[in-house]
Amino acid sequence: MTSRGTRKRSRGKLLIVLLALVLAALLALLLWYQLAGRLKLPGPGPTEPARPKSQSAACPDVQVVAVPGTWESNTNDDLHNPTANPNALMLNVTRPLQAQFPTERLDVVTVPYVAQFSNPIAFPPDGQQSYNNSRSEGTQKATDILVGMHTNCPLTSFILTGFSQGAVIAGDLASQIGAGKGPVPADLVLGVTLIADGRRDTGQGIPIGPDPSGVGAEVALRGLEVPGIKMTGPRPGGFGTLADHVYSICTPGDLICAAPAAALNPLNMIPSAAALANAAGNPVHQLYNGFQVDDSGTTAPQWTANWAAGLVESAPHPAHT
């Protein structure tokens, strides 16, 4: 009896220890999710008031809002003269535009945000902000820029462009605007160009250059959610009324925008999320500065800058007071 009683007590203690370990693991997982952050996207924009016939002389006719890619910006970077990453792809779009047009005609803004993507299985942790936090901040910063300009300058037109994580942000805003729920009216958006869009989907966005098979990594990984990384799938409704104004550039072999379904399996969540984090540093993804989109040798940023310049040249000239 003594031996049997001892075994029962031992099993009871073991069960308590196991339950404590399970509880500790669940608490650790919950803490991991909380620290990594949840994806926060802005809701519908404000109701559009009656549009005036003129605006302040301080207002530009057009504003370009460029959203840099992962590791190409930081939260405190300068809106008009970004220096966080001197090799940032968006600089090869924004700088030529700034040199070509006077500020009263065109205001060129680069969205400053943390622009990071932590690897969920890095040990020790890589010290970066999670994709959820980074994308949420970039979306809010871009939204605030658009709202601020439209509030003060209701006749100013807009051009949106972005690369990589920045293309996801710019594309999400374009989708929201095209659905009539964005921070600015759709008729004021002259055009959108997305380079290496992680939510690229079949039939959404007019392709410039090659149109590789596959879809954006967020579409391939639709439904995947691990601490700090939420894959939101394709954009519901595409780009709505902006469908004919959105262009997409994607190089074959880039897992960010042209991922085959078999390459990133949502059923294998953690390794798939890690593969996505590493894809941003893949050589193919880093070569868009030299990626040629036509037979004349025009590169992706050159095409984007030329396209935007054409839109600025033909944009309305609002009356000023």
Description:
By secondary structure, this protein is α/β, with parallel strands linked by helices. The protein has two domains: 36 residues; 257 residues, Alpha/Beta hydrolase fold, catalytic domain (Rossmann fold), CATH 3.40.50. The protein is 35% helix and 12% strand. The strands form three sheets. The chain has a six-stranded parallel beta sheet with strand order 3-2-4-5-9-6, sandwiched between helices. Strand 2, helix 2 and strand 3 form a beta-alpha-beta unit. Helix 2 runs parallel beside helix 7. The radius of gyration is 23 Å and the shape is elongated. The model has no long low-confidence stretch (mean pLDDT 88).
Q: Which labels suit this protein?
A:
single chain, 321 residues, alpha/beta, Rossmann fold, two-stranded parallel ribbon, disulfide bond, Cutinase family protein, serine esterase, hydrolase
Approximate helicity band:
25-40%
Structural class: alpha/beta
Mean pLDDT: 88
Strand order of the largest sheet: 3-2-4-5-9-6
**Stretches with pLDDT under 50, minimum 5 residues:** none
Q: What is the ordering of alpha helices and beta strands? A: HEEHEHEHEEHEEEHHE
Question: What is the fourth-level CATH superfamily of the largest domain?
Answer: Alpha/Beta hydrolase fold, catalytic domain
Main sheet: strands, sense, barrel: 6 strands, parallel
Q: Overall 3D geometry? A: elongated
Radius of gyration: 23 Å
Per DSSP E runs of 2 or more residues, the count of β-strands stands at 10
GO molecular function: carboxylic ester hydrolase activity
Family: Belongs to the cutinase family.
Protein name: Cutinase family protein
Keywords: Disulfide bond, Hydrolase, Serine esterase
